[in-house]
Structures are given as structure tokens and as C-alpha cells.
Design goal:
The complex is a heterodimer of chains A (79) and B (413). With 79 residues, chain A is mainly α. Helices cover 58% and strands 0% of the residues of chain A. Chain A has four helices and no strands. In chain A, helix 1 packs across helix 2 and helix 1 packs across helix 4. The chains are: A mainly alpha (79), B alpha/beta (413).
């Protein structure tokens, strides 16, 4: 389950920000390690909603700092 | 001609156009007489009166990194491609220039129209939450300038003149001024346009400005010819690196030409129609000559704006005739490239510089039967084949809806 989510996120990160799939590991910070800027985070949130059916409200998006944070949010809110 | 240290010279050229993905392939194709015009085959064009377009010869997606490209409107992509070619050729990036003394001036006529219209489709179909967070930076008319500025690390100022089809030429004039006022040590200037989309096509067609010679794409753009019936929309970008002759000499870089002078005027006549005798255009050419300290007799070649519209070409012929005279060899290169709108002035400046370098004047394609207009008849418009010539100074003029007139004078260095 969490592997599927990690793989799905890695696909999104590669498409939106050119992050190599091998680099999309749970401990990585989006801004500091993966060079993902705030506008790209908005795109990632939209892509997450498309792929996983999980909407991330703006106030939650600010709390998602790492790939692992995004994985737990998706896992917790997936219906 | 001899240059003083404070003269402004051109040390780099870049372009991506309907004739080629860089300067060399574009120039070769121009001299070989090739056309960049084709007929659109997409379904949407069926009801359109004007179905012709001059598409880029090289897909920007193949010249630019994918992730970078998806954040740039097509007009920004072509700007960056042309600018990086010019910048690399000049070697200015490795010349030790302080980034606070590097400036960019890049114009566009329409801006990020493809993004604006594409995101509007998404808004209509899927709602506001699906609109891209990159919509605004991709559609803003300063977007090409900003993208170029980032690409070369320019921190001395990034400017975006907007004067319709004169924007590219206006950018070059601003660059000249920045160097003359000592506001920068090197300026990357140019123009970009990429707006091949049903809406601009319908808008220009509604003005009756576009050629409807749909069955003969390569013969449709025919400046100064009796049978001309409008322009062909083109896409692309061109860029030049400007710096002072003294710094170019000090770092031993090759100098293509000197940007000797510029002139800008407004018609004050009509929002769209040019002054019928080209009064404002002639004043712009006269101002550029005075700025360059040259007389009309010094000018050996004019790269005309000549878009192939019935009214514009004769007005311009009148302007060239009154401001330069009958001796200069005239070329209308839009006959092969189509009309690149905000990039036109920059691309045609590149052509003007290469004509000076190679001492060859490009031909005006499709000029089979010159207009009966007295000025068209009197001018020496090169047609059928490029012509070898000996000359040291040339003019490129550009005009834009809104009554903007620009003229630039280039000389051998």
C-alpha cells in the first residue's frame, strides 16, 4: 500500500518537477532536497487528487514538508 | 568603418524560426529561397478564410529540457532558445561581467496567448481549481524577457517593450540606449512570438490582414507584388548580444557589426492603418540615420518590414524612397519567413547583420509583378535571387499596430 503510494508520488514528482524516481524517498524534503517550489507544490496537489482521489486543502498543503508527509496524508485520507 | 570604444557592437546572434532552429540554418534556408509557410491541416481551420502559417522548423521541445519547458509558454521557450544561442556565441557569460551590469530587453507582440487561451479552456471545462499555478507567469507579456533574464543571470534590469510588430526592433533600441547611458555593460536583446491558435488567426483574418492564398502556401507572402493579399502568421524568436566596442575588443571576441543608430516615431494617424505615405516611418529612418551620423547615400541595403499587406507595403515603399532614396537594395524577407510579429524586428536585424557580413542581399520571394505604386517601381527591390553587393551600412525598419515606427542602422564594425 505505502509502496504504491510512494511509486505514484514518484511518478508525479518526475512529471511535474523532473525528480528522478529513485530520489523520491520518504525522508526527502520537497523544497530543500528535491528543489520543488511552491507553485509546483500546487501542481503536485492537483495531480495527487487525480491519481489518489485525495484532495489536499491549502492549509494542509503547508504542513506537508517531506515525501513521507505526503504519503501519510494520502494513506490517512484515502477512502 | 572604424569604431570607438563607446560604440555599440553586436557580438552574438541567435534565432529559431520557420526556416531553421538556429541562425546558420535559417540564413542558409533564406539564401536558398526556401519558404517556411505551410497550410494548416487541423480540423478547426476549415471555416477559416486564412489557413496559412509559418511554423517553427525545429520543435522547441527538442531544444529545451522537458521540465523547464512545461513552465514556459511557447513564446518564452523560443525566446530562451534564441537568447541562449546568442549568449553562447558571444561568450559574454564567461567574460567576467558583473551580473548587476547584465541587462535583458526582450519584446513580444501578443505575449503568452497559447497559455491564456489554453487555460481558459481548462477553466471552462474543469473549473478554477484546475487552472495551472503557472498561468500568470506564462501569459504575462514580460514573460519572454523574464525567462531570458533568468537563463543568463541578468540582474542589471529586465525590460519588455511591447509595440506590436515593432517590439523586437524596439528592444534593440532600448538595448542601445542602456549601453549609451552606461546602465549596463552587456545587453541581451530580441523578440519572441508564438501565437498560432484559432483566436489570433480569426482576429487577424477579421481585420482582413492575412493572406487567403490557401492553395499556394509558399507563394502567399509576396511583399510589394501586385497580387499580395495579406501576411502569413509566423512564430519564432531572434536575439542579439550588444556590448561596447571597447569591452568586445578587450576580450577579443568576434564582432558581427556595429549598431550605429536607432530612430523611433509614432504616426499619430490611426490605431491600425499606417500613414498612407509612410510619413512616420520616413521620420524614423531619418532619425536613425542622424543618430548614426550617416547620410542616405551611405545606406546600401534596407531590410524592409513589408508584411505583404496591400496598404502597408506601399506606405513603406514611400518611406524608404523619401528617407533613403533609390540606390539601396531592398529585401522583404517575410516573403519566406512569414510575419513573426514581435520577433520580426529582431529576426530581420539578424538578417541585416548577416547581409552586411556576407555582402549579399537576400531576395524577396514571390515578387513576380511589382505593384504599380511609383515608389515600389522606383526602388531596387532584390527579387528571384540574392544579390552580391558591396556596402558598409544597412537599415532595418519595423512597424507595429498602434502607429509605432522603428528604424535601426547597422554598419560593418
Amino acid at each position: 500500500m505505502s509502496e504504491d503510494i510512494q511509486a505514484g508520488l514518484a511518478e508525479i514528482l518526475e512529471e511535474v518537477a523532473g525528480v528522478a524516481p529513485a530520489d523520491a524517498t520518504p525522508e526527502k524534503s520537497f523544497t530543500e532536497d528535491l528543489d520543488v517550489d511552491s507553485l509546483s507544490m500546487v501542481e503536485i496537489a492537483t495531480a495527487v487528487e487525480d491519481k489518489f482521489g485525495v484532495a489536499i486543502p491549502d492549509d494542509e498543503l503547508g504542513n506537508i514538508k517531506t515525501v513521507g508527509d505526503a504519503m501519510s496524508y494520502i494513506q490517512k485520507n484515502q477512502g | 568603418m572604424s569604431t570607438s570604444d563607446r560604440d555599440v557592437v553586436v557580438t552574438g546572434l541567435g534565432a529559431t524560426t520557420p526556416l531553421g532552429g538556429d541562425v546558420a540554418s535559417t540564413w542558409d534556408a533564406l539564401l536558398a529561397g526556401r519558404s517556411g509557410v505551410s497550410r494548416i491541416t487541423d480540423e478547426w481551420v476549415r471555416e477559416f478564410p486564412a489557413q496559412l502559417v509559418a511554423r517553427l522548423a525545429a520543435d522547441p521541445a527538442e531544444q529545451i529540457d522537458r521540465v523547464r519547458a512545461r513552465r514556459l509558454d511557447r513564446s518564452q521557450q523560443v525566446a530562451v532558445i534564441a537568447a541562449e544561442e546568442a549568449w553562447a556565441e558571444s561568450g559574454a557569460g564567461d567574460a567576467g561581467y558583473d551580473s548587476e551590469r547584465i541587462a535583458v530587453v526582450f519584446g513580444t507582440g501578443i505575449g503568452g496567448a497559447l497559455t491564456l487561451l489554453g487555460q481558459d479552456d481548462i477553466l471552462e471545462a474543469k473549473g478554477p481549481k484546475r487552472v495551472s499555478p503557472f498561468t500568470i507567469p506564462m501569459l504575462m507579456p514580460n514573460g519572454p524577457a523574464a525567462a531570458v533574464g533568468l537563463a543568463v543571470g541578468a540582474r542589471g534590469g529586465v525590460h519588455a517593450p511591447v509595440s506590436a510588430c515593432a517590439s523586437g526592433a524596439e528592444a534593440i533600441r532600448w538595448g542601445l540606449d542602456l549601453l549609451r547611458f552606461d546602465r549596463a555593460d552587456v545587453v541581451l536583446v530580441g523578440g519572441a512570438e508564438a501565437c498560432v491558435h484559432p483566436l489570433p488567426m480569426a482576429g487577424f483574418a477579421a481585420m482582413r490582414a492575412m493572406s487567403t492564398r490557401n492553395d499556394e502556401p509558399e507563394r502567399a507572402s509576396r511583399p510589394f507584388d501586385k497580387g499580395r493579399d495579406g501576411f502569413v502568421l509566423g512564430e519564432g524568436a531572434a536575439a542579439l548580444v550588444l556590448e561596447r566596442a571597447g569591452s568586445a575588443r578587450a576580450r577579443g571576441v568576434h564582432v558581427h557589426a556595429r549598431l550605429a543608430g536607432a530612430g523611433a516615431t509614432a504616426d499619430g494617424y490611426d490605431l491600425v492603418a499606417p500613414h498612407p505615405e509612410g510619413e512616420g516611418a520616413a521620420r524614423a529612418i531619418g532619425a536613425a540615420l542622424r543618430d548614426a551620423g550617416l547620410s542616405p547615400a551611405d545606406i546600401g541595403h534596407v531590410n524592409a518590414h513589408a508584411t505583404s499587406t496591400p496598404v502597408g507595403d506601399t506606405a513603406e515603399a514611400g518611406a524608404i524612397h523619401s528617407a533613403v532614396g533609390e540606390h539601396a537594395l531592398v529585401s522583404a524577407t517575410k516573403s519566406q519567413t512569414g510575419h513573426l510579429l514581435g520577433a520580426a524586428g529582431a529576426l530581420e536585424s539578424v538578417f541585416t547583420i548577416l547581409a552586411l557580413r556576407d555582402q549579399v542581399v537576400p531576395a524577396t520571394a514571390n515578387l513576380d509583378d511589382p505593384d504599380d505604386d511609383a515608389a515600389v517601381q522606383a526602388l531596387d527591390i532584390v527579387r528571384h535571387e540574392p544579390r552580391k553587393a558591396t556596402f558598409t551600412a544597412a537599415v532595418n525598419d519595423s512597424f507595429g499596430f498602434g502607429g509605432h515606427n522603428l528604424a535601426l542602422v547597422f554598419t560593418t564594425a
